[in-house]
Amino acid sequence: MKSLYLLPLIPLVLGTAYAQMPTSTAPQSFDLSGRSTQAQSGVQNNDPNAFGETPPPQLMGMEIPLLDPSSDTVSFNGGKFDVGNNAAVRTLFEDYLSQTPDDTEASRKYRRSIEKLIDLTQKYSKNAGPVGSKVMVKIGSTLYDISDYPGDGQQAGVLASGIVSALDAQRGNLKRDQANKELDDEIERLVKKTNSLTNQNTQKGQGNGNIGNIKGKSGNSGGIAHTVRIAFNTQEIAENKAIQTANKAANQAALAQAKIQYQAMILTFFLQRRFDHAVIGARIYRHVFRDGDTNLKMDKESDAYKMITGITGMPPTINMLDASAANARREIDQNMDSITNLLAQNKLGEATNRLITAVALGEYMQSVAVFPKESRQRIAHYWTLRKRALTALNARDYGTVEAIAAEMKELDVDFDDSLLLSYTAGKKLQSDSYLRQAAKALQDGKEAEFQEAMANAAIIWPRNPNIDKAREDLNKFDSYDKQKEEFSNYIKAKRFRDIYKDRERLKVVCVDQELSRQYEAVIRYIETIDHSLSEFRTIAEEQAAMGGAGMAYEKLVQMQQANDALTDELFRGQLKEDKKFSDTLRDMRDAAGEFTDELALAQKHEKQGEYGSALAHFYRALELNPASIIAKAGIERVSEVIYNATF
């Protein structure tokens, strides 16, 4: 069951309800925009019937928002609003966080006076004195005194004036009651006098018979005078009774008017969240108006009356406002205690939500006013992160959202970022998928499809870092013809090193399938060479003392021989043309020293047919590098030639 003390949120919601805008489909835990959730169901108007709901009731000509404490949402004008996201509530909350705690001596004195008044009125309820008693005078005097405190906003003075007005109305009624009592005495006197005169006329008429007729008219002059006096008295009695009736009517009207004005004042305090004033005023009401009638003067057929009775199950009364205001005071104080405990446990999210409710309902409560500055600053920082997260989320800046979520998770032990991260990850994936489509369209030369895919990727994630890379690819695509001609010239001249050196700029030629094949083949060819050369240099450096340079030299020679035997005309015989390979081969040959010299002499003598000398030099090379494949192969060749020549 919703509690009546939630009604003070009415003016907060009314101030901004018409300014709400549709929400996005972003996680609602970060929705601080105050936007109506109605947009999520596709409804773009404020027709409550579109939701299958009954329109909210009216109070004083205004639609009443109904707050559901289980979800912190208010139903109003066909939409649902998050109390913490409402613009008025946010403004009030942010102002509160930026204020210095009101813990001055003047504030403490004011709060002590309020507590004394509440205590005094509570005791006074049990021992009611006469209207206008010394206790009432003390209450009124105290209210006027504390109304000068700025934080009171002159509301105590309004309450004191309201009490005086109600007492004046009651005193006016007492005066009219006293006047009616005096009129009763006068009427009783006139009635007795009239009865006496009537009896005298009756006695004279019976005793004298027709004496008056015999003696003349003057004989009955006393009877006539009595008759005139009786008529006069009767008229005066009627006039007095009319005055009494008018006084009674005036009393009833004055009492009704005084009650309406006093009740409106208490209800205003309640709706303004001046719960202290509402409690004091409600308790004094029972002493100003002693007839025992505490029902609020509302039309029983009105929506407001039906709404309140529907919430509480009882007719609206002053006692109900008293109980609700007192309960609100207690719950706000308890809420502030729980906030302090939550902050001690680093549960900033829950503490923030509770403080929003506490400030929205208990802005003028002592426990809210003196909340420490350090605690406000902690919550203000967390609140700012929530706002920044919403701004980034609405701007679709998912990288910033994730960074903020990480910071919030570090601050709040209970913060659950799973929904948020899942949402941002999905959006990032969508954007990257469109970029992949754009890349494929670019490769296929379909510029229109490329532009559409790029636009979709930017709409979903405007700050996607891959978008800049895609734009670079587009710029390269614009110079495609020039790059294609340059690449083709490099291929014809077999300047593979130049292609590899400028590979990023020339990559745009991959739009063409045949050029793409050549481009990839050149890149693999150069990378393979460079990888091998790096390995051979490492071997030579690590095993220099064990013939490592000679082994590396032999490997390079074998690579060159394999390259000369390639079937692919594009690369066959091109290894010896590669400057980096040639330089490495020379370096390895120089590093091998005597070994390579012996091989060179052996190969020279072999070509000249001097097989004995060649065999001697091959053996010398093998001695220097026992693992030499070239030396072993030379020995086998030369030995076979000598053997065949001998036998």
Percent range for β-strand residues: under 5%
> Radius of gyration, rounded?
52 Å
The unreliable regions are 10-67, 207-219
Category from helices, strands and their pairing: mainly alpha
Shape verdict: rod-shaped
Treating each run of at least 4 consecutive H or I residues as one helix, how many helices?
A: 26
Measure the end-to-end span: 120 Å
Q: Report the strand count.
A: 5
Mean pLDDT value: 76
Characterization of the model:
By secondary structure, the protein is mainly α. It has 26 helices and five strands. It has helices at residues 10-14, 87-98, 105-126, 134-146, 155-207, 211-215, 221-271, 275-288, 303-312, 318-344, 348-362, 366-369, 373-394, 398-411, 418-443, 447-460, 465-478, 480-492, 496-501, 503-506, 513-542, 548-564, 579-592, 594-607, 611-624, 629-646, and strands at residues 58-59, 62-63, 66-68, 73-76, 79-82. The strands form two sheets. The chain has a three-stranded antiparallel β-sheet, with no helix packed on it. A two-stranded antiparallel ribbon has the order 1-2. It is rod-shaped, with a radius of gyration of 52 Å. It starts with 9 loop residues before the first helix and ends with a helix.
Relevant terms:
647 residues; mainly alpha; 70% helix; 2% strand
Which helices and strands appear, and what pairs or packs with what?
Elements: H1 10-14, E1 58-59, E2 62-63, E3 66-68, E4 73-76, E5 79-82, H2 87-98, H3 105-126, H4 134-146, H5 155-207, H6 211-215, H7 221-271, H8 275-288, H9 303-312, H10 318-344, H11 348-362, H12 366-369, H13 373-394, H14 398-411, H15 418-443, H16 447-460, H17 465-478, H18 480-492, H19 496-501, H20 503-506, H21 513-542, H22 548-564, H23 579-592, H24 594-607, H25 611-624, H26 629-646
Helix pairs in contact: 2-11, 3-4, 3-8, 4-5, 5-7, 5-8, 7-8, 8-10, 10-11, 11-13, 13-14, 14-15, 15-16, 15-17, 21-22, 21-23, 22-23, 24-25, 24-26, 25-26
